Amino acid sequence: QVQLVESGGGLVQAGGSRRLSCAASGSIFPNYAMGWYRQAPGSQRELVASITRTGRPNYADSVKGRFTISRDNAKNTVYLQMNSLKPEDTAVYYCSAGVSTLSFNYWGQGTQVTVSS
Length: 117
Description:
By secondary structure, the chain is mainly beta. The protein has strands at 3-7, 10-13, 18-25, 33-39, 46-51, 57-59, 67-72, 77-82, 91-100, 103-107, 111-116.
């Protein structure tokens, strides 16, 4: 069992930056692939970025070059550094964990990111 708690959301101006954090507890963090999803009002939840157990990242085309996912196994934490934010990045961002990047089973409660134009 894995418990995930996101933090770092808030209001930011377009062009600004924000770093999201997700602290994991309850199991052995290095054994899990991690991901960040987001869901905007009226839209389906979409994968933003994922990172394998060995640290290999993958990004949605919409955030490539702007967002960076990383993990610190010593702190049981995964991060999402978001730069050059756009109003269309506004969404609730969710942290997820799973045995692989193809199977996320655990979810955090979400953190709101609002980008003003």
